[in-house]
């Protein structure tokens, strides 16, 4: 198309600029302005922040002495059994691009989904982020074919217990150290 006069050229350039700014603004908003997102864990991008959250809350996250969180992240495995390497899903909760928390889940035999870790960094707590993560885990495990989701927490971790129960998990067993939860998906 050949543009003959100046006013047509100005109109065409203006329209192109408005279109470019509009598309650029939409990209910026969806990429950076969205306050919360749950994304796939990328070791090179997220490991430092996830390990920092893990170490600060190690007592609440695991009772296994010497649990190797870095191994878990590198090999996407809940433990060092070769049977589970690459089987664990690791997701990161971002708040305006900052790592606010993380979660890990995997499938066990018998269509049982297991949530292993749910952790929210201290500066991001009391915002409902843990509930968002747990609901996300339930939906993802449902998509993977789970017929129920299980998890456990320390008997003294009352904030976590409130989160799990408010989402719909039922206590199935308790001992002096742990509370065991189940969420049926049938």
Task: Furnish the topology, listing elements before pairings.
Blueprint: H1 6-33, E1 36-40, H2 43-56, H3 58-61, H4 69-75, E2 89-95, E3 98-108, E4 112-120, H5 129-143, E5 148-154, H6 158-167, E6 170-174, E7 178-184
Parallel strand pairs: 4-5
Antiparallel strand pairs: 1-2, 2-3, 3-4, 5-7, 6-7
Outline of the structure:
The chain has 186 residues and is α+β, with helices and mostly antiparallel strands.
Q: Radius of gyration from the CA trace?
A: 22 Å
**Which class of secondary structure composition applies to the elements?**
alpha+beta
The CATH class of the largest domain is Alpha Beta
Enumerate how many helices there are, as a single number: 6
Quote the distance from N terminus to C terminus: 61 Å
Q: Could you list the spans in which at least 5 consecutive residues all have pLDDT below 50?
A: 21-30
- CATH 2nd-level architecture of the largest domain: 3-Layer(aba) Sandwich
Largest sheet: 7 strands, mixed
Structural summary, described in words:
By secondary structure, the protein is of the alpha+beta class. It has 2 domains: 33 residues; 149 residues, 3-Layer(aba) Sandwich (Aminopeptidase). 42% of the residues lie in helices and 27% in strands. It is built from 6 helices and 7 strands. Strands 1-2-3-4-5-7-6 form a 7-stranded mixed β-sheet, with helices on both faces. About 5% of the residues have low confidence.
């Amino acid at each position: 198309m050949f543009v003959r006069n100046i006013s047509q050229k100005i109109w065409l350039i203006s329209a192109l600029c408005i279109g470019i700014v509009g598309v650029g603004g939409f990209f910026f908003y969806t990429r950076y302005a969205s306050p919360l997102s749950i994304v796939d864990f990328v070791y090179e991008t997220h490991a430092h922040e996830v390990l920092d959250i893990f170490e600060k809350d190690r007592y609440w996250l695991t009772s296994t002495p010497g649990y190797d969180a870095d191994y878990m992240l590198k090999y996407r495995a809940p433990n060092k059994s070769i049977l589970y390497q690459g089987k664990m899903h690791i997701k990161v909760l971002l708040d305006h691009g900052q790592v606010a928390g993380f979660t890990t889940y995997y499938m066990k035999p018998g269509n049982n989904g297991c949530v292993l870790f749910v952790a929210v960094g201290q500066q991001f707590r009391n915002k409902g982020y843990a509930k968002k993560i747990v609901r996300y885990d339930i939906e993802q495990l449902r998509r993977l074919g789970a017929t129920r989701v299980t998890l456990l927490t320390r008997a003294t971790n009352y904030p976590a217990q409130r989160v799990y129960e408010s989402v719909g998990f039922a206590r199935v067993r308790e001992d002096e150290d742990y509370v065991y939860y189940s969420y049926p998906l049938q």
